[in-house]
């Protein structure tokens, strides 16, 4: 009988938590994947704390709480949720202008909003994100991951470049030797040992990024007045943080689904994120969402597949910064830069920019991808890029479909027959009235709508206008062939829309 691990490799069937706990090989993989993610999370959590205007310890504790809670409440396995840069950018003004207590209230309210939006079914909106936007999202993510490492490669000792090159070499070669131990972990250990052995004290390390905590987090009740004024201050930031966090988490879930051939529960992921942010707030933490780069490290680079790796990523963060902070502080940033560069390269959809692909792909699809990439990289905000990409896709789709609508005319004695082909909605029906020969037509006109469908009020208004124009000339008009749905919709609105 084949093992679960063999089945997972052969048929892409992902193991459950219980299966991983019963199989030492799978469990070892999950434990080590969580450790690698934690090592990569620490410097980013510190950096995002600085962006949010809070103490680095706040970001580290938030990452611990968010990862542990989402491991139980999230909608998909192996996703990593922690203090995130996109959320930090949104909430930074609250911390800067009103202080930490108002920031906690903002995060708590954002969590409540996410739970409410989940109950309202916001996760179902993911079906309206087209593939071209998803490809642009992935490519922009890869570019942002790479760009985020550039500051670590500017004005640094020459040894940093040697260490990064050595780290990339290890990351590419080690998987050919064995996959039992994740290559990123080997690279981090070996490069840290090299820095210590050769006394490369000038090389920047994790300790240089900020102070690591020495104690466990505790519950914290914010000292703010529970008034309408407080709500007025925090509500706009909370709503923005809730939307940004939800969008990034749901997009990450979709990306993980594609990589692992699984299907996550998006609604559960939405309310699970809200619960995790509430928990983070009451431990005095900042807000977060799915960390796409760390999720890729877990799923793609380290082979994490269950909630165990997610849970242990948070646990490892706490252990490493509280109990082993001095050792963690020695890790050279060059090692983490190498890991993130590999993540960037492996995340980018290189197939999407091949000349052969671009020649086959409709120009509109390529434009949507480019809009998503440019908007995301320009603003450094994945949520803005996705929203603009979806809007571009809607506009280009409406424009393309509008040109598929045609009107053909035949005359038989005293009857002119028009046949409408294609979908009728606002983009295609706005010029529908110009395609009829009112003066030249005989006394009876038939408009055949059997090969189209009436989708909106704009179309009903256009049909009413056509009928009115003919009646003013004494011509009778007959609409025939409408489907039951179109006839019902038309009958409900016809004559009641008035003049535009």
What is the number of beta strands? 6
Low-confidence stretches: 1-13
Kindly provide the radius of gyration, computed on alpha-carbon positions and rounded to a whole number of angstroms: 29 Å
| Helix and strand run | HHHHEHHHHHHHEHHHHHHHEEHEHEH
Strand order of the largest sheet: 3-4-5-6
Could you give a short account of the major beta sheet?
4 strands, mixed
**Could you tell me how far the N terminus lies from the C terminus, measured between alpha carbons in angstroms?**
72 Å
Count of DSSP-assigned helices: 21
Average pLDDT metric? 85
Mass-distribution shape:
elongated
Give the helix level as a range of percent: 55-70%
Fraction in beta strands: 5-15%
Oligomeric state of the chains in view: single chain
Estimated structural class: alpha/beta
Main location: membrane
Transmembrane segments: 31-52, 64-91, 103-126, 133-150, 156-174, 186-207, 230-250, 271-293, 313-346, 367-398
Keywords: Membrane, Transmembrane, Transmembrane helix
Organism: Microbacterium psychrotolerans
């Amino acid at each position: 009988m084949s093992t679960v691990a063999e089945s997972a490799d052969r048929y892409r069937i992902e193991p459950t938590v219980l299966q991983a706990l019963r199989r030492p090989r799978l469990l070892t993989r999950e434990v080590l994947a969580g450790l690698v993610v934690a090592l990569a999370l620490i410097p980013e959590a510190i950096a995002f704390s600085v962006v949010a205007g809070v103490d680095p310890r706040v970001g580290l504790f938030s990452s611990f709480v968010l990862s542990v809670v989402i491991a139980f409440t999230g909608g998909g396995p192996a996703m990593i949720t922690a203090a995130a840069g996109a959320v930090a950018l949104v909430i930074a003004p609250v911390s800067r202008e009103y202080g930490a207590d108002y920031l906690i209230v903002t995060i708590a309210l954002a969590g409540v909003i996410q739970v409410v939006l989940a109950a309202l079914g916001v996760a179902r909106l993911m079906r309206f994100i087209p593939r071209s936007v998803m490809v642009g999202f992935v490519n922009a993510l890869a570019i942002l991951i790479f760009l985020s490492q550039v500051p670590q490669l500017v004005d640094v000792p020459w040894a940093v470049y040697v260490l990064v090159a050595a780290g990339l070499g290890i990351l590419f070669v080690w998987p050919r030797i064995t996959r039992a131990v994740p290559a990123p972990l080997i690279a981090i250990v070996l490069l840290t040992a090299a820095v210590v052995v050769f006394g490369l004290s000038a090389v920047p390390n994790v300790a240089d990024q900020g102070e690591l905590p020495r104690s466990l987090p505790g519950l914290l009740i914010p000292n703010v007045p529970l008034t309408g004024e407080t709500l007025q201050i925090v509500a706009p930031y909370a709503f923005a943080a809730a939307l940004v966090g939800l969008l990034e988490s749901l997009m990450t879930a979709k990306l993980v689904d594609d990589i692992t051939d699984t299907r996550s529960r998006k609604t559960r992921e939405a309310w699970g994120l809200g619960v995790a942010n509430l928990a983070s707030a009451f431990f005095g933490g900042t807000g977060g969402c799915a960390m796409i780069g760390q999720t890729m490290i877990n799923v793609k680079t380290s082979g994490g597949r269950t909630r165990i790796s997610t849970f242990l990523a948070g646990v490892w963060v706490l252990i490493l910064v509280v109990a082993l902070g001095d050792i963690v502080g020695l890790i050279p940033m060059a090692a983490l830069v190498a890991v993130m560069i590999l993540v960037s390269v492996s995340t980018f959809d290189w197939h999407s920019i091949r000349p052969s692909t671009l020649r086959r792909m409709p120009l509109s699809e390529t434009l949507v991808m480019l809009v998503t990439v440019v908007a995301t990289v320009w603003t450094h905000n994945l949520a803005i890029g996705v929203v603009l990409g979806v809007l571009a896709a809607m506009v280009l789709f409406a424009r393309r479909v509008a040109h598929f609508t045609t009107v053909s005319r035949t005359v038989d004695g005293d009857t002119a027959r028009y046949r409408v082909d294609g979908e009728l909605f606002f983009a295609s029906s706005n010029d529908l009235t110009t395609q009829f020969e009112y003066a030249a037509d005989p006394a009876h006109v038939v408009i055949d709508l059997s090969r189209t469908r009436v989708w909106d009020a704009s179309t009903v208004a256009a049909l009413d206008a056509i009928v009115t124009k003919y009646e003013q000339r004494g011509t009778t008009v007959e609409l025939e062939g409408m489907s039951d749905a179109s006839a019902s919709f038309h009958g409900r609105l016809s004559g009641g829309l008035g003049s535009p």
